[in-house]
Amino acid sequence: MPAARRSPLKPETGLDAVSEQTLWLMAVRDRQDRQAFVNLFDYFAPRLKGMFIKSGLSAARAEDIIQDTMLNVWRKAHLFDPHRAQATSWIYRIARNRHIDVLRRENRPLPEELKIEDQPAEDASQIVALEMETEKLRSALMRLRPEQRELVEKAYLGELSHSDIQAETGLPLGTIKSRIRLGMERLRHEMKANTAS
């Protein structure tokens, strides 16, 4: 399974660096690149399955929703804008919405983490502040040592458990826990330093 990596984009895109998954999604959007879609499917399907099973779905039901989600990714790829979101957040949003649709159709209660509370629309200053915070986090992630960044991204962006990461990377559990702990400490330090400056 491909590891999450960040790759440079051509200058004309206006983006400094994006995840490999975002490059795949852009290839699907721009060229209907089937291999890039296969890469996306192979990367996201097991992560989405884990997320759906944790929410109480059966493996078979989870796989149905993953198929629908990835079909929507193919169909809606033309709407993807890497200036607004990385592929991971865009695809997870599609998956979450598809999951909610299925649960509502079946008249099942939504798991707590999927409920959407009625909130006033965010004003422009909140949106700008959130985007700035996201950029600070992305910048802080890029300053981590590569082996720490890879495991932090797998654990927190890919939502993999330590044992999932061990199965994927072959690293000892102690090494995984240590790298994630050190990476998170460094991230907290970087984010505090950014806030103070």
Automatic annotation (TrEMBL):
List keywords of the entry alphabetically: DNA-binding, Sigma factor, Transcription, Transcription regulation
Gene3D superfamilies from the xrefs?
1.10.1740.10, Winged helix-like DNA-binding domain superfamily/Winged helix DNA-binding domain
Name the Pfam families on file.
Sigma70_r2 (PF04542), Sigma70_r4_2 (PF08281)
| Domain RNA polymerase sigma factor 70 region 4 type span(s) in chain numbering | 135-187
Superkingdom of origin: Bacteria
- Entry-linked InterPro entries: RNA_pol_sigma-70-like, RNA_pol_sigma-70_dom, RNA_pol_sigma70_ECF_CS, RNA_pol_sigma70_r2, RNA_pol_sigma70_r4_t2, RNA_pol_sigma_r2, RNA_pol_sigma_r3/r4-like, WH-like_DNA-bd_sf
PANTHER family noted in UniProt? RNA POLYMERASE ECF-TYPE SIGMA FACTO, RNA POLYMERASE SIGMA FACTOR SIGZ
Q: What is this protein called?
A: RNA polymerase sigma factor
